Structure formats: C-alpha cells, structure tokens
Amino acid sequence: MNRNDELSGTLVLVHPDLTYDPENRKNQIGIISSAEIENDNVMVSFGKDGQGLFSTDALYVLKKGHEISANAVRDALEMDTKDFRDILQVGLWSDSQLTKEKRQAIELAKANPKVLEYSMATLEDELGLKQEYSVSR
Question: What is residue 19's DSSP assignment?
Fold first, then answer.
C-alpha cells in the first residue's frame, strides 16, 4: 500500500489561519478521501457538505499521543492547568481507534490555540515534505 492510500480516512482540520480559502472551509474538520502527495493535492470530504481540494500545508493532523503527552509534561510548569489537562486529553483521544474520539480531540484542539500547537501539525510536516532552503555564498 502506498502513502496516498494510507492517508485515506484520516481526520484533518483545515488550517484556522488559512489565507487563501476558496473552499471557505477554514477551521472545519473533514476526512481525507484521496491524496496525490507527489502533486500536493489532498481531497477532503466534509460529509453532506461536499469536498474540497487542499495542499498538505493547509491541513492539520493529530500528532501521536505519546508525543503530545511528552511535550506537555516537558512544559507543564510553563502552562495553564486547564491547557495542560486539555492537551493530555487530546493525547489520549489521538491514539484511539474510534473516529468519534479522534474528532473530539480535534474539536478540543481547535478551540484553543495552545492545545492546537501541542497536539497537531500540518500534514506537510508530518509527512516530512517541508523543505528548508539555504543560500550559500
């Protein structure tokens, strides 16, 4: 199975600060229906509200639960108690096999920028597609 097929069925959040949003889907949750990563095209279904085509940098996916929890524990003394609890809850739900719990995790993350920062990453980053450019003289 290739990476494009593996992404099918993944819950995503459309970037809340998307500057170019012709689909008008900013901050909405959808499910990847198909992907052509080599062309940076990801089709996301929004149920009965239709579909939209996005690039990998316009979509957030949940990080792995252990990564979310470890980062929260590392920075626990620097954050609000409610944020800490919410981040840990998202970490638990992100590893669930239940779509309902993964959706709850994304709903909780999108409601608080701090929780979003700790628990989600762009699909581009998660797939390791972001390239750093350096200019040497």
Answer: S
Looking up tokens 């939209």, which residue turns up?
52
Is the entire prediction scored with pTM above 0.70? yes
pLDDT digits (tens, 9 = 90+) for 12-35: 999 999 988 888 999 999 999 999
What are the extents of the domains in the chain? Answer: 3-59, 62-126
- The SS3 of residue 61 is strand
Residue 61 in contact with residue 121, Cβ under 8 Å? yes
Return the SS3 of 9. Answer: coil
Work out the angle between the directed axes of helices 81-94 and 99-110 (0-180°, nearest 10).
150
* 3, 10 Cβ separation under 8 angstroms: no
DSSP type of residue 47: G
Q: Cα–Cα distances in Å, from 28 out to 100, 110, 124, 131, 137? A: 15, 9, 18, 26, 44
Q: How far apart are CA 61 and CA 31, in angstroms?
A: 10
